[in-house]
Amino acid sequence: MAVPGSAGLSRPGLRGREAELERLRALVEAVQGGEGGAIALLLGEPGIGKTVLLQETVSIARAHGFVVSHGRAEELHELAPLASLASGLLHGDPPLLSSTDFADLAGHHDQRIWLVERLAQLIEERSAGTPVLIAVDDVQWADPLSRFALSVMPARLLSSPVLWLLTGRNDPEPYGQGPRTTTLPLRPLSDTALAELARDVLGGDVPTRVAELLEGAGGNPFLAAEMLTGIAASGADAPEPPERLVLGVRDRLADLRPDTLHFLRIGSVLGRAFSLADAAALCGRPASGLSAEVDEAIAAALLHDDGERLLFRHDLLRQAVYADLAPSVRRALHREAASRLVAAGRSSTDAVPHLLKSAEPGDQEAIGLLGTAATDVIAVMPDLAADLAVRALELVPPNAPTVFDVGERAIVALTRAGRYTQARDTGDTLLARQPPLDVFARLQSVLGDALWHLDDVHELTRRSTAALAAVTDPVIRARLTARQALARSRGRDLGAARETGERALAEAERSGDREARVLALWGLGEIALNAGDCAAAVEHHTALSVFDTAFLPEEAVARIHMDDFDTVRRLLRTAGDAPLRPAMLIWAQGTLNMGLGRLDDADADLVTAERLEADLHVPGNLVNIRVNRGLLAMLRGDREAAREHLDVVRATVAERPNTGNHATHQYFEAVVADADGDHAAAAELVRSVQRDHPFLRWRLLRPHVVQAVRIALRGGDRNLAEDLAAQAAEHATRNPSVPTTQGTAAHAAGLVNADHGLLERSVRILLTGPRLLPLAAASADLGRALLAAGDPAATPALTRAHDIYAQAGADVEADRVRADLGRATSRSGRRTGGLRPRPGQGWDALTASERKVARLIAAGHTNRSAAEALVVSPHTVNTHLASIFRKLSVRSRVHLARIALAEGDAGTVTGG
Fold first, then answer.
1. Where are the alpha helices (DSSP H) in 203-326?
2. Burial bucket for residue 454 (CB in 10 Å: 0-12, 13-18, 19+)
């Protein structure tokens, strides 16, 4: 049997698309041959031939042994989460996913990152032995969750034999940005192809008159085919259609009985695909009474019956019917469709698309349904929820008593979608209407979240104080007090902030309000961190994460400050695959790895956290991520990478000014300036952090105070160095049980006072703690001091520092210590060897963790099972794999397995 698409010549249905079909066939064969995953985008206007090419590629893939998922997005199904992908994943032969798998996913549809990762895992497992084609037609109408999945999963599955084939209009975003993407814009057919198409339909040579008429199709194969159908039925002398309307469609509509034409118009309002029951309800007739109309529409080649629904044979046909309706008739039919769908017990997601096309101000049913739909989708499609909530508010008459309730929901939805400025402006518009005092207080309470994210703590404090003077509702009072405490956590008087937080927690407990309790505990935790009280921060964040597990990353970070690394490991292991806040969990993991001196793993975690935030389009932690990656790059001696990170930080801070981001940015600038030899400028930058951001003293400089002291001393600012050392001593007093705080305080004081005894004390204390890099730094400074004094004890101290730095991958620091060690050992006749720099490409370029991942994947593990073996997140495994593929210049797991086998790197791999 001939393989579909294998013929080299044009044939009916594919005239003029030979080159595109050949490229698609080559992609199918490449994926089948072990070249990894790929993405193909077919783009063009309606009727240009995208669906025909997609169907032909599906046939080719099936002939090559692919499991195929073939779905279609529909214009009126945008509110149904994952509907566009589900239409194919569940209905293949065999289906790519079982209904049980999909039901498990649906249970967590409110966690986008978790859902997409789990879906990718299922597809990865399904493709382990068989290549997979996932085809989605008309992606321009995909629901937001499907669009999100399609923007993330192809890159996630590039190492698996999965071919993604998407068709859509001329905007490829967001699907065409990844690697291995083939974009095929379908151009109008040539005159030669049109002539072949005409011979297919009419037979024989093409008359000149027919060729002239075909010019009106503009090279669009569907329009040309419909015109040819009309010509075949009525001859070439029929009047030309206006506006390039298809002759055949107009002729067929004109020949239909009035009842059939009305039925088709109703169907065009319901969408390209619709159920007979819905159409019957809108026609006001029983479904059994429409058989004649259905039969006539099918006979006229306008509709197709797939056994479950009726479909217009092409969306251009639906548009031609829909365009014949007067605008007022369309609006009325859409409104009636919404009402009948609701009356029939259908969900708001079915009715709302019609309301968006028909509802008018004052339509209370529409306002209620839009609000319900916004609530239903806010967790998984926050932008869509915000649009629906805003539309509901627009429909409320200005003086209606419900305007404030609807407006409050709009503020919440806009804030959830990250549209903070619009949320604030919406609230201010409502407040300008001078609502009753309790309503005023309630609106100020919900506006607090937007103001916090806008970093407008002064305005948040002012508004919460004003609202507290007017509020009578104890729940709103508790929330406002908690907001006030959160705002005061950024101020200079943290004692007063703590009192406010404690009062907020007491009010929350009395009122029994969950939101107020979360806000109060969060505020108290922030206050404790900013005050340097690690034990109190752990207490409040632990209570918060017990109450709401979404805050587990905050508890983990607070415990890291206490040097409680064992508990943090257990927490992160417990979180496992739970659908929490994956970007923040990975951030916590990265913070732990930095504390442990695992620089490669920490960098991979930070890359992963940034990618997850970028996937969600909420880069709230980008500055912290890039600053830490920049500091890691400086430790490795990679100045170029550090400057790239600094450029991103500068651009982000300029785009979104933020007090915390500004302080973090200033400190990073200080480190870079110091490394460049501009010590005075570096010291001034550290001084500005101390002066301008007092609430961040503990939080920012706590892990970096020794480095800041060095910068101050090199910059000739002894007062700043003494201030920093005193700050470290005060922090140690507040946290007597934390080895790092005690050892760091002794280290800072030892540098400022040039005191060997304090440096020795620092090393002794840090040896009892879990952090290796502070121990290395203290050992290095002790060794240098002893070396200057001619003390032979310098050698073991410097050796310890060198070995820790070398093991961590802090190459620049290891080189510095090695130079000192060289001077020490030259006195005793010993020599030290140099470090061999890690290459940029090849097997030797892989980090230790990357080698573990490579071995597991080469042995046949999925990303999920590899993550379980290494006790890390599947997201981190994804990051490692992307780095492995780049360093080894491979495209698939098959290629990776060959290299791993050649390197002889096999064996059992477990987590550490």
1. 208-214, 221-234, 247-255, 258-270, 276-283, 291-299, 315-323
2. middle
Residues 642-680 as b/e (b if ≥16 CB within 10 A, e otherwise) read beebbebbeebbeeeebebbbbbbbbbbbbbbbbeeebe
H or E segment to which residue 273 belongs? strand 273-274
DSSP letters, 376-423, are HHTTT-HHHHHHHHHHHHHHS-TT-TTHHHHHHHHHHHHHHTT-HHHH
Q: How far apart are CA 94 and CA 774, in angstroms?
A: 57
Helix (H) or strand (E) holding 163: strand 162-168
Structure tokens at 343: 């009356």
Q: Looking at residues 732-761, what average pLDDT do you find?
A: 96
- The model carries a pTM of 0.82
Helical axes 863-870 vs 848-858, angle rounded to 10°: 130
pLDDT of residue 578: 59
Alpha helices in 402-493 (DSSP H): 403-416, 420-431, 437-453, 457-468, 474-488
Q: What is the pLDDT of residues 176-215, one digit of tens each?
A: 555 688 999 999 888 888 888 888 778 777 777 777 777 7
- What is the greatest pairwise CA distance in the chain? 108
DSSP H helical ranges for 617-767: 622-636, 639-655, 659-675, 679-692, 697-701, 705-714, 718-734, 739-753, 756-766
Place of tokens 């967001």: 174
Determine the pLDDT at residue 252. 66
- Per-residue pLDDT, 68: 93
Distance of alpha carbon 489 from alpha carbon 241, whole angstroms:
70
pLDDT in tens, 574-627: 876 555 688 898 999 999 999 999 999 999 999 999 988 888 777 788 999 999
Which residues neighbour 270 within 8 Å (Cβ) at sequence distance 6 or greater? 76, 278, 279, 282, 337
| CA atoms of 523 and 466, how far apart (whole Å) | 19
The span from the CA of 836 to the CA of 262, in Å, is: 80
What is the C-alpha to C-alpha distance for residues 523 and 489, in angstroms, rounded to an integer?
7
Neighbours of 50 (CB within 10 A): 26
Position 799 pLDDT exceeds 80:
yes
pLDDT value of position 639: 93
Residues 49 and 221 sit within 8 Å (Cβ to Cβ): yes
Is residue 244 within 8 Å of residue 223, measured between CB atoms?
yes
- What pLDDT shows up at residue 522? 95
What are the E-state strand segments in 16-89? Answer: 38-43, 67-72
- For residue 325, give both structure tokens: 């309706």
Say which residue the tokens 């990844």 belong to.
Answer: 178
Q: Which of 526, 528, 447, 439 is nearest to 486 (CA)?
A: 526
Model confidence band, residue 237 (pLDDT cutoffs 50, 70, 90): low
Q: How far from 492 is each of 454, 456, 464, 488, 696, CA to CA, in Å?
A: 20, 16, 18, 8, 10
pLDDT per residue over 409-420, tens digit each?
999 999 999 899
pLDDT the model gives residue 827? 52
Rounded-to-integer distance, Cα 611 and Cα 849, Å: 19
Distance CA(904)–CA(912), nearest Å, equals 22
Do residues 369 and 342 touch, judged by C-beta distance below 8 A? yes
Pair of tokens at residue 181: 């993407």
Band (pLDDT 50/70/90 cuts) for residue 8 is very low
pLDDT for 3 beyond 50? no
Distance (Å, whole) CA 523 – CA 521: 5
Burial 269-290 (b: 16+ CB within 10 A, else e): bbbbbbebebbbbbbeeeeeeb
Q: What is the SS3 assignment for 185? A: strand
Distance CA 721, CA 724 (A): 5
User: How high is the pLDDT of residue 358?
Assistant: 94
Phi/psi for 109 (5° steps) reads: -70, -10
Is the pLDDT assigned to residue 9 strictly greater than 60? Answer: no
Q: How far apart are CA 898 and CA 581, in angstroms?
A: 36
